[in-house]
Amino acid sequence: MLIAVIDIGMLFSNVTCFKTGVKFFGQPTSLDITESNHYVITTCALYRIAITYLQHVHDHNDLDAKFQAAGGNCGDFHMIIARELEELDINPIFFRLAREEIALANIMTDLIYDPVSYTHFDNEEFENGVKFVTMLSQAVQSSMARLEWTQARMVFGFMLHSMQDFYSHSNWIELGMREPNKDLTAGRRLGSVADENTKTCKTCLGSDEDCVRNNLRVDNYLTSGYFAHFYPVKKPPGKCHHGYLCYFPGDNNEYCE
């Protein structure tokens, strides 16, 4: 999917504006796969795109084996890719800054779009979520056509965040799916989505760990958790919470659904 949307110029073109003021926000100290947050997932994916480019265009076929051997730890791959780019007379600083622009835009999505549930596929907002991803995809391609690389990278980061949230905020994996949802970037209906009357989660107490780990009540409908910034979260009866623990004072450490 990423190759279908991204133009390689987005990764290797001149970076005219690089904002470092938000570097602390969500950026990990390492790129170990155990830190599976938006920054790590995005950075590793961009390394994969760079490797694919170097393989297909410049026949650097040993890079894929090195990437697989790393077992998901992307920490050393900037220097490996940088050396490959230098051999091609491509300034690796452009790749590093472009990568950071995309990854930091991804992180900033939580600040810019946080109250809007469909941008994160929360509250079972799948239809509007797909429309949002489609709109961003079109905006990325429009910016690339005009060679507006900084704008393209920023919007691409926003789009990746929403797509990552689809998989992490929904029960797509719990439904047994092991491949990306191709309808997500095609602007189509995502499949069988639970309607407003379908009970999707059962309520569990913190002492019932088995219930907490197996609280989904649907195995054939797509659903996602309901989220709010304030407790208690207002949600329809029988629906799922966002997926965090409700450790609030006086709440007796109850788990959310």
From TrEMBL:
A Pfam family annotated for this UniProt entry: VWA7_N
Domain VWA7 N-terminal: 91-243
Domain of life: Eukaryota
Protein name according to UniProt: VWA7 N-terminal domain-containing protein
Record organism: Rotaria magnacalcarata
